[in-house]
Amino acid sequence: MRNSHGIEVKECCASCRFKDLTRLMTARFCTQHHKSVKPKGCCKQWAISEQLEAAGSAGGKVKRRAYLRYVIAVREEEALAEQRGLKLVRKSIDQIRQEFEKNHGSIFLSL
Questions:
Q1: What is the pLDDT of residue 103?
Q2: How many CB atoms lie within 10 A of CB 67?
Q3: CB–CB of 73/42 below 8 Å?
Q4: Confidence class of residue 80 from pLDDT cuts 50, 70 and 90?
């Protein structure tokens, strides 16, 4: 089936508005049937989730590849320092984002 924005969505428990995630990644809880269900299972009461209905609405943003590479580089440097026995405080994502934006502009692609 396709959502209202033309994005194809598979009808199954994983895409249903009545699913509730459990601690197990292999199961979900159906709030309609009040039981555990498999992610690929489906029933006649399936209804598309709000998130998947919104997919393709252009409400999201895409992060720049340069920013994602920057985050990876920062985390690799931190891991290398830890391997060498150096104690350091890991930067938060907010700190990394602020550094990148200060030097390179927005973390998002301009479409």
A1: 97
A2: 19
A3: no
A4: very high
